[in-house]
Amino acid sequence: MTTHSQIPQTTLDKQVETGSAGARPQRRRSLRRNTWWEIIPAALGILWLLFSIYPVIYMLFTSLRKLSNLYTDTPWSFPSSPTLENYANVLTNGFFTYFVNTLFVTVISVFVILVVSLLAAYAISQVRNPFTQGVFNLFLLGLAIPLQATIIPIYAIISDMHLYDSLFALILPSIAFGIPLSILVLVTYIRDIPNELHSSMLLDGAGHARILWSLVLPLSRPAIITVIIYETIQVWNSYLFPLVLTQSQSVAVLPLSLATFKGQFTTNVPAILADVFLSAVPIILLYIFGRRQLLGGLVAGFSK
Q1: Taking the chain, what is the end-to-end CA distance rounded to the nearest angstrom?
Q2: Domain that holds residue 46
Q3: What pLDDT is attached to residue 289?
Q4: Residue pLDDT, tens place only, 204-233
Q5: What is the CATH number of the domain that holds 264?
Q6: Chain-centre distance of CA 183, in angstroms?
Q7: Looking at the 3D structure of the chain, how many domains does it have?
Q8: What is the pTM of this model?
Q9: 31 and 178 share a domain?
Q10: Is residue 10 part of a domain?
Q11: What does the alpha-carbon distance between residue 190 and residue 184 come to, in Å, rounded to a whole number?
Q12: Do residues 226 and 181 both lie within one domain?
């Protein structure tokens, strides 16, 4: 048997060099493969960012143009003579009234949706029996009902309740159509909370109110923020309910304010886009500050 000491040093050096030379191309191919797997998603992400941000940039640039330069300037370029007169026009045509009305309807609606959905989701998640499952299925059935198909019955109900042409005429339908999806998101997330934590708090003598406040509420923050952002967008941008259930200028909301800049024969496109941009700023800021929790809430339930 040949020992290590009997092998000439030159032979060992050749074997080391041969092994290193063979491993080097393989390592290089592996690094190249890993680099491509990193570059492709990054390139697709940048492409998607360009597609997503272009409408916002176009809206901003157009809102800074004069109406006379709308068709002479290049659409995707910065305005040749930027102006803020469109924003001044929007602000002096009742924008603050529309904004306050929209804010009031959105805050009240989202708050009620969140409270009702959180309580219902906690009960459905913790009490497992045919009754709660039937209630859950009934809420899910609400997702299959299109809003447009119910506008005439809603109009009749709101009129019978003497709420027509008021802000509460917008709040009640918004709550009704916002609860089903919110319950679905919260139930899916609350069911992922370990049962051991719930059982240990029960053994310590905690009631359901304490468990909901100290355990469920902190651990469900991503789902709660998801509900807040999604429902805020839905209520803030709602157009059909304000169009059918209100008619006075004093209770008009932001989506209806766009008609202010549309005449019988002309349409002030830069002013409309200035109005849209100002209306979208709160939603954009809300998304920026809550995007991490929003992604966490959207993937709720996939761990099981």
Answers
A1: 58
A2: 22-83
A3: 76
A4: 777 778 888 888 888 888 888 889 988 999
A5: 1.10.3720.10
A6: 16
A7: 2
A8: 0.78
A9: no
A10: no
A11: 10
A12: yes
